[in-house]
Amino acid sequence: MQVTTHANHSADSQRQTAMLQTEFNKYKNSADFVAFKFIKEKTRDYSVRNGKTEDLNEFFDQGLMIEVMINGHIGYGATAELTQDGIKKAFNKARAMTETASRFAVHRFDKNVRPAVSGSFESNRKTKLDKLSLTELFDFLKKTSLALKKSDLIIAAVADAMLIECTQLYFSSAGAHFSQEFDIVVNSMSATASNGKESQTRSLHGGRGNCLQVGAEYFDVDSALQSCEEISAQALELLTAENCPSETCSLILAPDQMLLQIHESIGHPLELDRILGDERNFAGWSFVQPDDFGKLEYGSPMMNVVFDPTVTGQLASYQFDEVGNTAEKKYLIKNGTLMAGLGSLESQARSGISGVANSRSSSWNRAPIDRMANINLEGGKLTLEEMIGKVERGVIMYANRSWSIDDYRRKFQFGCEYGKLIENGKVTKTLKNPNYRGVTVPFWKSLAGLTDPATVETYGSPYCGKGEPSQIIRVGHSSPYALFNNIEIFGGG
Amino acid sequence: MKNYLKLLSTDLFSELKANEELSLGLHSEESEFIRFNKSKVRQNTSVLQHELTLQFQADNKSYKATTMLSLDPKADRVSLQALIDRIREDLALIDESPKVTKMQNHGQSEVYKKSQRPSTHDIVKKINAQFAGSDLAGLYCAGPVRQASLNSTGQFHYFENDHFFFDYSIYDGPRAAKGFYSEDKWDDTAFANQAALLKNTLSLLNKPQIKIKPGTYRTYLAPMAVAEVIQIFNWRAVSRSAFEQGFTPLKKLHSGEQLFSPLFSLTENNELGLNSHFNSQGEISPKNLPVIENGELRNFLINTATAKEYNLVSNNADAGQWNNEAMRSIDVRAGTLNENELLSQLGTGLYLTNLHYINWSDPQAARITGMTRFACFWVENGEIAGPIQDIRFDDTLYNLFGRELINLTKQQSTFINTSTYQKRALGGMKVPGLLLNSMNFTL
Lengths: 493, 443
Description:
The complex is a heterodimer of chains A (493) and B (443).
Chain A: H1 2-27, E1 33-49, E2 52-70, E3 73-79, H2 84-102, E4 118-122, H3 134-148, E5 154-172, E6 177-194, E7 199-203, E8 211-213, H4 221-239, E9 242-243, E10 247-253, H5 255-267, H6 272-275, E11 305-307, E12 330-334, E13 337-338, H7 345-351, E14 359-360, E15 369-370, E16 375-377, H8 384-389, E17 393-405, E18 411-423, E19 426-432, E20 435-439, H9 440-445, E21 447-450, E22 457-466, E23 471-479, E24 482-490
Parallel strand pairs in A: 4-6, 9-19, 10-17
Antiparallel strand pairs in A: 1-2, 1-5, 2-3, 5-6, 6-7, 6-8, 10-24, 11-12, 11-16, 12-13, 14-15, 17-18, 18-19, 18-20, 20-24, 21-24, 22-23
Helix pairs in contact in A: 3-4
Chain B: H1 2-14, E1 20-37, E2 40-58, E3 61-68, H2 73-91, E4 108-114, H3 120-131, E5 135-151, E6 156-172, E7 175-181, H4 188-204, E8 215-221, H5 223-230, H6 240-244, H7 251-255, E9 266-269, E10 288-293, E11 296-297, H8 304-310, E12 318-319, E13 325-326, E14 329-332, H9 342-346, E15 349-362, E16 367-380, E17 383-387, E18 392-396, H10 397-403, E19 405-416, E20 428-441
Parallel strand pairs in B: 4-6, 8-15, 14-20
Antiparallel strand pairs in B: 1-2, 1-5, 2-3, 5-6, 6-7, 8-20, 9-10, 9-14, 10-11, 12-13, 15-16, 16-17, 16-18, 19-20
Helix pairs in contact in B: 1-2
């Protein structure tokens, strides 16, 4: 049955593509530049709580984004009405508004910001996600949820899987024609323990941090059950753990907290459209100034951070950004010095600052803006045991549960699920409510050690929010364990 | 759209089997978004989107599927029927859910609202003219938003609100003042007055910044800042399902062990007219649901599924983020403090117009953290001394709305929901300003 269904889908897709190309040909000469971007995305999001069906949700999203350039200003018209009349309506609306807006444009671009590329990309997977049935997924979730509920003190044992199958198709009057296909899995598991006086939650790498481009082969029940054992044991442990102390000391962040540290204090401040002021009213500005590139000592000399959509299997891997710029690996920070910004071709044209292929949108109904993709901190030289051995007094913190930073991306505060105290080079006791705060550049300058590349773990977030109108994007972050000195930590209460 | 929906639903409902139920929820919008930077247009986007959410139920099992309508009647009809057929087959192999309740007919209604405003083309020119000499960033958003809820028992509710908002801020280098304009009728004079007031506020920031040391300070939170803090209640704090599953910042309030101030009352007030009168299930929202009254917890938000699972009475709450109940139309009761007495009543302390990026610091203690943003000032003996460098706060809801609350302003401000993630949200809140004896600042 699935083979037949898949064949039907292929035939439908071909018909749809042919229709869109026919329509595009009607409009491609009706402005200085015209592009059609078609996105189709199916998301299945299923959860099981305490072994029972919680939610079975699916979202099938498809639509067309039309780009129109008039007098150097690019405007957009998006529509779900995939009919001749619907596309005509959307094009006419986009052209009319772009004509008006072009008289007040903040910048006039040339067609170099829309390269004429062709090609295709597919996620690297053994078995496509569309081969996985609801029954198979439900079976996985039920088993893992029941395994998480190892005690009556576990009041909520939740297993969730979100599967995303996305295709993008882009063609333009400049001659661009590319397609990309993504299979994505976001798997979360959590156990909330309560003894009547307090509750504590422990999860698989914090919220929805466990996310990859991967196929159905991800769902290995045996491996998942091992994680369940650890998660529920640690949730119970937290009920009787001491509060994280309030002091200034050494701090080791596990990769599943480094995910947020990198995201908030490196990724966002380096977005060039933010530096140019586009985001000031909503997501904020940046402390980074245009003159800082090539000069600012952002952190310790051991700090090397890359923008890299070419990595296989990470959440934001792709070949082209959404305006056709070919993705390449680039150092944003090299040996601690700020080198390049997260700026698309448009931001590079506006600012003159070196950028990357990062013009991305959440879906067909939002214009692309400067976004993170995969932003990764490279490994260092230590084993984790060596790193812990260096610490006289400190804390290791695992798995993000809270994040807050100012609108210039300097003063941050993070909370984690689980901590361990280190005394005289040894891990001693479990700590609950571990939190820390700091200021971005001094924090990164206090980086004193990184574990080696073999310890790098890969996470991400499907929910990076930004933009006016707002949109969320999927981003990947990989990191080793990282040691920082003289950090203000505190607990709950 | 209403008629399209009726025709579509007639076909789909007629194909259901005796043990099956189906509901259809619509979110449709025809929106224009104009994004500004440096008082000019950065991007303009028009969006036509029509999301239909099907909830299919049979034999105590339920599946929700959202899809886009193309408005090609034949294509939509065929794809929706194929979707239902597939769900029917898949659901047969899945366990029952303890949360499923039988669908009800919650009646029929139609409500239409429309603001009066110039065309978006004219609005762009007006904004540019008003702020040509300024550095403005922000978003103008306009157009109809339609919501509907139908089901196979005969329910039909339809709501359409064609409205606009202009959410913006103006800058003098790093100094910024925040504005917001949304009315039933665009008024050039009112808009010009707001622009003038904002430019004046910005000029007040043109003094050396004062660096505030960490510590506790007497503080006034203006309505926009209060709105930011109040939003944290919608991060699962007032959700009964979240409470039952261990997320319990209001545990002490619930048990009576620790109360908020008797001056503080928080209501889900659907008479504000900011959202549709029905929730996503088509249940009619209560006109006024007291959540916290005179400092005591009166009601968690309870939706029908939560009520069934925990043997409670539903108050027709809707699912917010991550399916935990959330308020849609918040009203914080006014106090007795006159706005013209604010500075003298504050005396010496902080005057904060906006806060930013609030999150739980320790949810079990109802502790939150966030940053100051935009025009925030140090006040000495009732006089504005100067703008402050941004600073982080970390304090508990029990302090802010409890022991440290001195008074709230007589005047309230209404803010419609400006969220545009995936689609435009409805709803909003009406809040006063807050005068606090003490608020804790950390970095």
